[in-house]
Design brief:
Largest sheet: none
Order of helices and strands: HHHHHHHH
Helix content: over 70%
Strand content: under 5%
Distance between the termini: 45 Å
Shape: elongated
Structural class: mainly alpha
Number of strands: 0
Oligomer: single chain
Length: 137
């Protein structure tokens, strides 16, 4: 049986806090996502991503501010949830929420490797204080 050391307990506590923070973000972001209707930007992005032909798609993407990969991923996401995206804003915004969750997990793991301890959890908590994570998702 392995002895429980202080560093093991600290890492377990930090990971538990990370799970609580990410669960809070997910629930609150879903709540915020359902409150607002489609914005004009979201409608434009969806229209560009769902262009009927590839030449129309390429022509539309060259005039937009986002990189083409964004529209390709949006096209893939909308093909997965094709009927739900037309009826609910949550499915369109869910891709951003999942991307932000993945970013926060990668950030936590990177900071934990650079500086083990509670600094990784504090960094994720500080990132979750940013209104951009909720507004842009």
């Amino acid at each position: 049986m392995l002895p429980i050391t202080a560093s093991f307990f600290r890492k377990a506590l930090c990971q538990y806090l990370l799970q609580i923070l990410l669960a809070f973000y997910f629930c609150y972001a879903i709540y915020i996502a359902q409150l607002a209707f489609f914005s004009p930007d979201e409608i434009l992005h969806l229209k560009v991503a769902l262009a009927p032909t590839f030449s129309t798609f390429v022509g539309s993407v060259t005039r937009e501010a986002h990189p083409p990969l964004y529209y390709l991923l949006l096209r893939l996401w909308s093909s997965i949830f094709s009927s739900e995206i037309n009826s609910s804003e949550i499915y369109l915004r869910l891709s951003s929420i999942i991307t932000i969750l993945a970013f926060l997990i990668l950030l936590y793991n990177f900071i934990w490797r650079v500086r083990p301890g509670s600094s990784a959890t504090i960094c994720v908590a500080l990132c979750l204080c940013s209104w951009l994570l909720f507004e842009m998702a």
